[in-house]
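INTERNAL AUDIT FORM
Audit reference: QA-55
Scope: verify that the stored structure record matches its stored sequence.
Auditor: D.O.
Record contents follow.
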Amino acid sequence: MIGERRRYMIYPMAKIAIIETGGKQYLVTQDTVLNVEKISDSEKAGSKITFDKVLLTDDGQETKVGSPYVEGAKVSAELIEQGKADKVTVIRYRQKSRYFKKRGHRQPYTKVRITNL
């Protein structure tokens, strides 16, 4: 066993893409479910969304890197739900001066499922 060469199966790579939305970048594959920044109120659950800011695509054979975006590349998604994240509490306090501020914030998000690369 010691010194034996290991042989690994080489599996074909899944299709991936890197998209940009809400000022953030996400690595996505087929049927990926992710929370992104809120898209818009007019969208309802089950509606189709298209992300056209695609930074990179890879289909296992060929990799395309955009500068800054890949021309003609689109990623389709289905809107699952819109909601608000858990509350984040922000407290500002200065001792000996009776200064105490407490604020809460809930960031809105949109949950999407990637349907097509």
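Auditor finding: record pair retrieved intact. The chain has no helices and ten strands.
Action required: none
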